[in-house]
Amino acid sequence: MKLSGKYSFFLTIALMLGMAVQVNAAALPDFTGIVRDNSPAVVKIIVEASGPQQGQGPQEIPEYLRRFFEFRGDAPSQQPRMGMGSGFIIDASGLIVTNDHVVSGADKVLVRMNDRREFEAEIVGTDPRSDLALLRIDAEDLPVVKLAAAGELDVGEWVLAIGSPFGLDYSVTAGIVSAKGRSLPTENGENYVPFIQTDVAINPGNSGGPLFNLDGQVVGVNSQIFTRSGGSIGLSFAIPMSVVRNVVTQLEEHGKVTRGWLGVTIQDVDKNLAESFGLERPRGALVVQVAEDGPADDAGLREGDVIISFDGRDIPASSDLPHVVGLIAPGTRVKAEIVRDRKQRTVKVEVGGLAADDSYSLAGGEPDGDEGGRIGVVVAEADAEMLERWNLSGGVVVHDVVAGSPAAEAGVRPGDVITLIGNTPVKSLDAFASAVEKLEAGDTLPLRLMRRGTPLFIGLRLTQ
């Protein structure tokens, strides 16, 4: 039967669409081999705890972030609670990686294998800062996973997770890498993990489980989800191999983790600050405070320096600096590229060490915002009590800010203590007046101040 030209056209289109569907289906990854080869090395972690969960429980982190460890029961003080998470075997002699929050506060830890065997586990060591823990069971010739090399992961790459969500053992979910280097500061403001973000479905019970690439290698350890309800909405976060390898090696050798420490408090560089520091665009970590006698202090770093590269790695934002510094072995001498007085220079730094029980934090902050005089502020001498409380050698406290002034536009607030205008220290009213008098119309300069005890820089543009 001969088809008319119109019908022949539509038939051709239909055949082409059918072929495209077949091609697309053939292009989709087949996960069956990865699951078959690796499921035996993925384990279920069962913990027993007698009291309230210790450490980094869900109630101690932001509402929208949840660590998906599943505890069952109301935990009366005399009655043990049972909880479940996941993990994976990295050594045939019985070494297992999981999350710190899975085993934190546990009285007893059981490991259940894919073949239903159970072993009581010893906790070799934990690292709350990275949310990783290393366990050991008394067994031999165990199946193991392959660990990917650090950094071998691309956005858009397929990944899959194996774990025990809601107690459903060895469930498999898949998705893609949505982003890398996500900063999720802890409740203490610490930020040592550049998380992998994926859209893999992760739920309670998946904590500590492996994230695989299509080569069947573990590229991360599932740790957190973004959620309002407690269930998966397609935003999950895993600890990358750069952190996992570093932490696991130290836990195995020493039972604890020591990470690199610089001894600075930092903040992001916004558009105004970038212009005031002579940067072509916002980038780097702006040093707002240097710990006395710390590594940065010994190297000659000072407030107002912008760190744009550290140990050969670019620092696009302040949150990237702790990720880099934390992985450097204490005692290592590295080069830091900084911008000071609008000029780029190199500083050599010997990285210090931050032990597991040290509390100093490489915190990142952001300026936020509300002028008289030329800049639009009414100031007074900071009293001795305030200077002592905030460990300042001098400064002027802002009593009022004139609406629409340069200071108001920059975000200066009543109560702020101004300690630096441009490169000029402000330790008194006379010093403040002298520094302001030298300013010229059109100047853009950094202003350093203390706000409720927290140091920060803001960019000030003088209009007249």
Automatic annotation (TrEMBL):
GO terms for molecular function: serine-type endopeptidase activity. It catalyses: Acts on substrates that are at least partially unfolded. The cleavage site P1 residue is normally between a pair of hydrophobic residues, such as Val-|-Val. Its EC number is 3.4.21.107. Substrate binds at residues 48, 101, 131, 205-207. Gene3D superfamilies: 2.30.42.10, 2.40.10.120. PROSITE patterns: PDZ (PS50106). CDD domains: cpPDZ1_DegP-like. The active site is at residues 101, 131, 207. One of its GO terms (biological process) is proteolysis. It comes from the Bacteria. Might be efficient in the degradation of transiently denatured and unfolded proteins which accumulate in the periplasm following stress conditions. NCBIfam families: degP_htrA_DO. This is Probable periplasmic serine endoprotease DegP-like. It comes from Halioglobus maricola.
